[in-house]
Design a protein that fits this description.
Elements: H1 18-28, H2 33-40, H3 45-53, E1 64-67, H4 73-80, E2 86-90, H5 93-96, E3 106-109, E4 123-132, H6 141-148, E5 149-160, H7 169-178, E6 182-193, E7 198-207
């Protein structure tokens, strides 16, 4: 399958190293330009992912880990549906500083490419939107997501279509299915940033322990 060239549509996709990505986000966070761009681009990832998630998690008190929460766009969507027990983590302190006050129970600066400093089986769900993309978080993070999620909990995420195969997410997802670490509930191509002709795979999986 030919990879769609999206680097010319969204400049950050050209960056491959974590420190380059971090510098870009620090600049992007100035005067809240990040949120303004997401609005202008009609970035639907948080809305689509939340709408998929709420079909399967009806407990409004569910403990949710928002991995790569950025400025809190997923938290805003969760709050609309009455969820209130969510925790955010992101690598960019600049973006975390832009999260609306009192939206999350806790916010942590975290490198999701490293082991997550959270207890095993702590969360009812992990949501990860816009984080599995160029130069960002790699497939091994899925093992950590499973570790911190309870049995029968949910992991709901987007994967930028440009890196799904290049970074090995396709193989990792299949491996986790084959090893009976999770089972697939939904997996489909989402709009994501349709205005830029950038799509993502959206998956929802139930953890097996």
């Amino acid at each position: 399958m030919a990879q769609k060239d999206v680097g010319n549509k969204i400049p950050i996709y050209k960056l491959k190293k974590t420190d380059e990505v971090m510098r870009y986000y620090d600049d992007w966070g100035e005067e809240n330009k990040y949120d303004k761009d997401m609005l202008d681009w009609n970035y639907t990832g948080p809305k689509e992912t939340t709408e998929t998630f709420i079909k399967y998690q009806k407990n409004l008190d569910a403990k949710i880990y928002d991995a790569g929460c950025g400025t809190g766009l997923v938290g805003v969507e969760l709050k609309k549906y009455g969820y209130k027990n969510f925790y955010g983590a992101d690598l960019s302190k600049k973006l975390l500083d832009l999260v609306p006050e009192n939206l999350y129970k806790k916010l942590d600066q975290v490198d999701l490419n490293k082991p997550i400093n959270e207890e095993s089986n702590k969360y009812d769900a992990v949501l990860c939107v816009g984080t599995f993309t160029f130069g960002h978080v790699k497939p091994p993070a899925l093992d950590e997501f499973i570790r911190i999620t309870k049995d029968k909990g949910h992991i709901c995420f987007t994967i930028n279509e440009g890196i799904h195969e290049e970074y090995g997410f396709d193989k990792k997802i299949d491996q986790l299915k084959n090893d009976k670490k999770w089972k697939e509930i939904e997996f489909f191509k989402s709009n994501y940033i349709a205005s830029k002709d950038v799509n993502a795979w959206l998956g929802l999986y139930e953890v097996i322990k």
